[in-house]
Design goal:
The structure is a homotetramer. Chain A is α/β, with parallel strands linked by helices and about 350 residues long. Chain A is built from eleven helices and 15 strands. In chain A, α3 (about 85-90) links the parallel β5 and β6. In chain A, α1 crosses α11, α6 runs parallel beside α11 (about 315-325) and α7 (about 150-165) packs parallel to α9. The model of chain A is unreliable at about 50-55 (pLDDT under 50). Chains in contact: A-B, A-C, A-D, B-C, B-D, C-D. The interface between C and D is large, with 48 and 47 residues.
Chain lengths: ~350, ~350, ~350, ~350
């Protein structure tokens, strides 16, 4: 086991951190060396279900990064503004950083400031970061030192629309996206609006005129289409713990549904985690896995694409491991195949 | 109490029948005289929560309709094909019929046969039936003998789009509807796909290319718009017992959102059950009531309208009572104001 | 309407307050005059589902009680320690107070201090308060000025065990109670342990060796039994919004189950809200009502009693109205019959 | 891979079969050769989430067992009465059988007939079967040819009470068990009482005076105590998909809680799947794992033991694999450690 890499994790309390610890615990080539959290104790104290798995002390974050300096990889599973503050020192010490927060997803500091309400403190690293969506960016991920892991909505929406946009010949593409999230998408929330009492037996939209993930989606789409994309993105909360179910609609009257389906089969044929199904995929069939299930329908002039995944795995922790596996040349499905 | 009207109900086991009994039980001007159900006993045997409320014998349906003949109103809360078989005899005997099933919603026998897979047995009454959506059809309801109560999706979608369509000057309007239903929308189902185990913690679309309610929606829209309506309607099941949350989207680039909102305020200002809100309405805020909450947003060229209601009340039993109140000149909110 | 009584409510944000407002809104003999809450605005701003029902300003609580002084009745739907601070001035002004918090449930100041961790500030009113459980205390309630409304667990447990204890001839009765609560029993909580993510798909006990309601239950049982009661009370949280399901077990080998059942039928025959059923009652069958359903079984030497109710209605707001109806000689079921 | 054992599975549609396939799919020493189910096609057709995992044809069961005869192990994940009909021929052909149904759990044919309502057709194998609860029976399992896998309730209750009963010196022990199950405990049910609509937001007991698992529990307890056990067992359904939460209570006034806790620590110290915790264990913390979490409290004279597990894993499929691992001398946690 002396050949395993040392892993550090900053942020130990959130739902993404739990998934990350659970998945890393099964990975043969790494050892979780340090978990940095506001709370001291052991990971078992934080999470009863990990009681026997990761007996590692959780410590307050120090200025000299002594607890992280002998790690080869550090994951940030923190709220926004933490990674941009601490990652630069680690990166300069040669450590690879995989950031699951939003800090390095937008390349443009002005755009970041617009959505997150403060100036970015590491704009040079914003530009250096690689957007960690393997199905779109595998080449760049291989050589990256800093990965900005995509959000859950962008992962579902970009995977679900990339083949469509890549084949678009129009100068302007208009996408309508209705995307439903499980409640864990809001994080480990102390807001009563995320309580069981106020979420169960309900369903509602939020932020119908502007969600932070909008900018991230558009920026990434520009990588693979020269069309101007007009994106209408309405997010919803459904009474389930996990999952993203995105419905992407666009008018495409003159192309046969089977041809469009073929674009998806071609694009994702070799992808280990993407399946183009012939049924309406359910959130339940992907929860707990790193998979994204797609399907394609036509209604009148409109093409309807369903894209579903587990927001905490393919939309966060699983994707972070997929990035790590690519960066180190390990089998891409290692420890996330189940 | 001798001045109350006698009510008969055919169908006593479904979720809509329970709501109907619960609401009728509070109504001051009627007496539930007979509940006809496959199962004998009392309503209390059928529904524990109604144990003390409606101590009426449930009997098998007889050929001479002896149990119904002294009723002034008969409600059908049955699967499709029952009402069209039995309602004509009652109607000919002068009884008013309020049908909560789909049997009389489509005026065209061919269209009905197409969606329900068999010939309609009472086509003359199909044409005579009044579509029981008060906000659109109040005048005709007043004098109707046979009411075809709208389905839950059509109620949400038509209320949510009528002001928009009434102001449309285009020859062709294209509506995209994503509508989420609670599981009771599937009826009292013995299918494992509606079991707790398979519904909880999941979310999925179904019938993305053709739902029976499509025809009903289009037929009704023709009443108030001369535009050709292209409707893309995707229904979903969410893990909640009740509720419809419809999102209606249409491109309308040149009209200000406030002007569109004003159309809705003008259209529904006097409606006791419709509220145009300034937030994203949740299913929870309407469940248990006969209300429909709307709100209007713009994103890019698109107008987004949310329309939410309780599928078993405003989408079924409450609306049936609202129709009855209108037919008899009683206050429209009687026994459904709560 | 000039003959209605004026009602004030202190506490407008909690789940109990919502139920109270909803029920009072239907009551013919009262007018809700003032709702005092930390948040200003209208009740509609607080609760979307009450938008049209109670258009009353919510104001910060003032020292001279100017907003409450012309009320005949004031309800406290507040966390503990608020009512004991403000109720005395109102009571001295001749106003009747119905307290839904725990402040006046325990008659003994030392016992109160033990469970609530601070000295009681109105011990004279502790002793004067009447425990508002009508099925046990109807006579005293009629003439009370200050009602201490019982908690949800005590209501279910005392109703479920009173006939048993009243017939006990042993000097010592041992009761085992396992009582399951919906999540709203924890109040409008901002604790992530009450979030949807952490409650859904789970079930757990809490406080197995001592719950505040223990003292309240024992104190009340002393009213109707001279036996010493040994109570083992284990509370649980189940993933549902509302409801209490209490299972009460005691060894009673020599009395026939039918005779015990008869004790319950005799005790509750005239009670409008208590039903002794012959099935295992479900939480769903009582939610939304002021009813308590009981049933009695034997297994070996043990008698098993199930007692279920809605924690926010019979366990709180509905019971408060039942008390008010008794205090004013109105029909006991007024506005809570549904 | 030529050294792997061939596995056959009879029953492919139930929730236990899904878990079994999911877990076996990760096991390095076996190959799932055949899945026998009423429905033809592939396992992927049966279960979307296993689409890529087990591409094995599902076939109707034939009389000569041709599809099973080259298997070394056959699992039955069927309703009762199937295994007793087909297992004998397989056993006589030298195949090992692990039955997850109830057919071989009771050694006494008369007792079996009493609970399952028909004569047992393989009584000789009833007596030869080994009860597959490793924590109690590991020695016998090692050499067994036919394993009767315990039910979910018995697993939780026996693990939770064995140390207690083993230390009991009384001639008669009285256990009160309140055990809460998730809805999947009822199987893949087409009964509306297990629908989402009727289960969500509810909680109820069932079979309070006699559950089939009662006999199985008592029979097993006789293995490790000579005391007569009086068991009162009340099962409940909670609105969650999975999980068993058992509360075991017994009067034990003269022994200190810490001493009793020590019995549990001693008994389960070396058990890989049993943890004696110092908090009230939740269903969520064990779901998805083969673990059983225990904790011990005292209230008055009573000892309270909580025992929680995942009914489909430690209560079924995971335990079946644990048995297989023991039978073949593989590490006991192989493929079920996560």
């Amino acid at each position: 086991m002396n050949s395993t890499l040392n892993i550090g994790i900053v942020g130990g309390r959130g739902y993404i951190a739990i998934e990350l610890l659970r998945l890393l615990n099964q990975h043969p080539h790494i050892t979780v060396r340090t978990v940095i959290s506001r709370q001291t104790g052991t990971v078992g104290d934080l999470h009863d279900s990990l009681r026997h798995c990761v007996p590692i002390a959780s410590l307050p974050l120090s200025q000299d990064y002594a607890q992280l300096i002998d790690c080869q990889i550090v994951f940030f599973a923190t709220p926004s503004s933490i990674a941009m503050q601490h990652a630069p020192a680690l990166l300069e010490a040669g450590i690879k950083v995989i950031d699951l927060s939003a800090d390095f997803r937008l390349a443009d500091p002005a755009e970041w400031e617009r959505w997150y309400g403060k100036a970015h403190t590491a704009p040079q690293w914003q530009r250096a970061a690689v957007y960690g969506l393997p199905e779109i960016n595998r080449g760049a991920i291989k050589d990256a030192q800093l990965i900005a892991c995509p959000g859950c909505y962008p992962t579902a929406i970009i995977i679900g629309s990339a083949p469509l946009l890549q084949h678009t010949t129009q100068s302007r593409a208009s996408l309508m996206v209705n995307a439903v999230s499980g409640i864990s998408g809001a994080g480990r929330s102390g807001d009563p609006v995320h309580s069981f009492v106020e979420c169960a037996e309900s369903f509602r939209a939020y932020a119908p005129t502007g969600h932070r993930h909008h900018a991230e989606i558009i920026q990434t789409m520009r990588q693979f289409t020269s069309s101007e994309v007009q994106l209408t993105f309405v997010p919803y909360l459904a009474p389930m713990r996990r999952g993203i179910h995105a419905t992407i609609t666009t008018a495409l009257p003159h192309i046969h549904q089977d041809d469009i389906r073929q674009w998806y089969l071609d694009a994702y044929h070799h992808e280990p985690f993407i399946t183009t199904t012939d049924h309406c995929p359910s959130v339940a069939e992907v929860v707990g896995s790193n998979r994204c299930h797609l399907s394609i329908y036509r209604s009148n002039d409109n093409i309807i694409i369903f894209s579903v995944l587990d927001n905490l795995i393919k939309g966060a922790a699983g994707q972070a491991l997929q990035n790590m596996n690519i960066m180190y040349g390990w089998p891409e499905t290692l420890s996330i195949s189940q």
